[in-house]
């Protein structure tokens, strides 16, 4: 593997330099609106031939292409996905120095291509990037723009005159040198590089395809560099096994297709039977439609007859209603005349009543005026008498206070006298009661003494 890598390293360097030059020509031509034929496409098409080892004859095939050939649809089974892991390289890191150099050169080429494809947008918007790029980069870009314009003008004149111009080669070399200088300045200024790289959305479709294909080429190179001869043999054996499985699956599919054809025949027979049933149903439906049409025709005739009879009856009713309307109109005119006469009588009566009401109102106003004058005089007298009453009430209040004091003294004296009389009556009654009790006591004592003497005398006589 090391010998194979060493043998192809120089060829790869030549290809990278050729690719950078073709990218410069494409960018310069696109900036001026002129598209030239570049060798980028041929580089991408012939990459496998450049990188093919000497002992190989067949075209190199990645395991992604094997996936597409063996199974176009997405692998759904987990076991099927794991079975393709054998196609992945066993080593995940490059061990040889030459392989690392190839990958680093490829990555540097991708970075430069990204910058070169964004240069037209940067040249169109130099004022926008002036602060971030710096004076050195701005000067280099302006010089590169001037050289590109001169080259486009010379190429245009050469195309019109159809005569080679010796200055074209010199200008092309100057453009190459200017581009190298611009890329060197960008490499020394990471901020400017990141700023310009952030404008990737402004890159054209062809430039995007170029960057994408270069990235795919890097992945392809990395896979081939990580794969050794023993792994390559194992992959070939595995691919042969997959081919045999594919043939067996093809035979199985053929058998299943025969079964499918038989099933289709059976289905067609079933469909023909059902079509016959449908035809019979359509026939019966046609007969039913005829019967329904006859029924509809008879129903329509009956309906027309009924409509005619209803029309005649409605006409007779309309005539009758018209006569009633005329009669009611005559009655209405008579009632209007009578009501007009009654209205005139009522209007006269109303006028008379209104006149009487107006007279009564005038009379009422006169009487009310007189009453108002009388009321004012009486009110005046009332106010005078009220003032006199207030003065009398003041005097009466003073007299009433004196009278209340006198009355209070008399009441107190009367109460005192009555209390003395009650006390005297109580004492008199008490004295009478005491005397009565005392007299009774004396009488009882006297009577008791007399009874004692009589008893003693009786006892003596018996003896």
TrEMBL record:
Q: Member of which family?
A: Belongs to the DRC10 family.
| Name the UniProt record assigns to this protein | Dynein regulatory complex protein 10
Q: Subunit comment for this entry?
A: Component of the nexin-dynein regulatory complex (N-DRC). Interacts with CFAP52.
What's one Pfam family the UniProt record gives for this protein?
Answer: IQ
Chain's role: Component of the nexin-dynein regulatory complex (N-DRC), a key regulator of ciliary/flagellar motility which maintains the alignment and integrity of the distal axoneme and regulates microtubule sliding in motile axonemes.
Coiled coil segments of this chain: 311-423
| Keyword field contains Protein biosynthesis | no
* Organism encoding this protein: Polypterus senegalus
UniProtKB keywords: Cell projection, Cilium, Coiled coil, Cytoplasm, Cytoskeleton, Flagellum
From which domain of life does this come?
Answer: Eukaryota
Where is the major localization of this protein?
Answer: cytoplasm
The record's subcellular location field reads:
Cytoplasm, Cytoskeleton, Flagellum axoneme
């Amino acid at each position: 593997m090391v010998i194979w890598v060493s043998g192809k390293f120089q060829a790869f360097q030549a290809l990278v330099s050729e690719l950078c030059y073709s990218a410069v020509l494409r960018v310069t031509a696109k900036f001026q609106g002129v598209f030239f034929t570049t060798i980028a496409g041929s580089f991408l098409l012939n990459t496998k031939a450049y990188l093919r080892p000497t002992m190989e004859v067949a075209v190199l095939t990645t395991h992604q292409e094997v996936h597409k050939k063996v199974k176009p649809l997405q692998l759904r089974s987990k076991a099927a996905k794991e079975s393709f892991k054998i196609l992945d390289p066993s080593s995940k890191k490059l061990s040889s120095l030459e392989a690392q150099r190839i990958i680093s050169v490829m990555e540097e080429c991708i970075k430069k291509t990204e910058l070169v494809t964004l240069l037209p947008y940067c040249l169109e918007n130099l004022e926008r990037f002036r602060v971030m790029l710096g004076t050195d980069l701005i000067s280099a870009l302006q010089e590169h723009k001037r050289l590109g314009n001169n080259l486009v003008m010379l190429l245009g004149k050469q195309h019109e005159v159809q005569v080679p111009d010796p200055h074209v080669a010199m200008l092309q070399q100057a453009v190459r040198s200017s581009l190298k200088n611009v890329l060197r300045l960008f490499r020394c200024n990471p901020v400017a590089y990141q700023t310009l790289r952030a404008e990737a959305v402004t890159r054209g479709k062809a430039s995007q395809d170029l960057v994408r294909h270069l990235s795919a080429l890097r992945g392809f190179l990395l896979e081939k560099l990580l794969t050794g001869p023993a792994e390559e043999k194992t992959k070939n054996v595995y691919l042969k096994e997959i081919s045999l499985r594919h043939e067996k699956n093809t035979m199985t599919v053929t058998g299943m297709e025969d079964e499918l054809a038989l099933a289709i025949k059976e289905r067609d027979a079933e469909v023909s039977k059902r079509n016959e049933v449908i035809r019979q149903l359509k026939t019966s439906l046609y007969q039913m439609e005829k019967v329904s049409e006859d029924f509809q025709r008879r129903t329509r005739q009956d309906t027309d007859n009924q409509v005619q009879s209803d029309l005649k009856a409605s006409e007779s009713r309309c005539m009758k209603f018209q006569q009633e309307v005329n009669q009611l109109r005559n009655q209405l005119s008579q009632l209007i005349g009578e009501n007009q006469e009654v209205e005139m009588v009522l209007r006269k009566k109303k006028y008379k009543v209104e006149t009487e009401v107006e007279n009564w109102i005038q009379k009422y106003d006169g009487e009310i005026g007189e009453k108002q004058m009388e009321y004012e005089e009486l009110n005046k007298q009332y106010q005078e008498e009220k003032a006199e009453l207030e003065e009398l009430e003041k005097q009466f209040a003073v007299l009433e206070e004196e009278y209340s004091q006198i009355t209070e003294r008399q009441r107190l004296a009367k109460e005192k006298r009555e209390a003395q009389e009650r006390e005297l009556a109580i004492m008199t009654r008490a004295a009478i009661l005491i005397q009565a009790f005392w007299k009774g006591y004396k009488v009882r004592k006297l009577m008791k003494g007399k009874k004692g003497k009589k008893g003693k005398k009786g006892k003596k006589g018996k003896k």
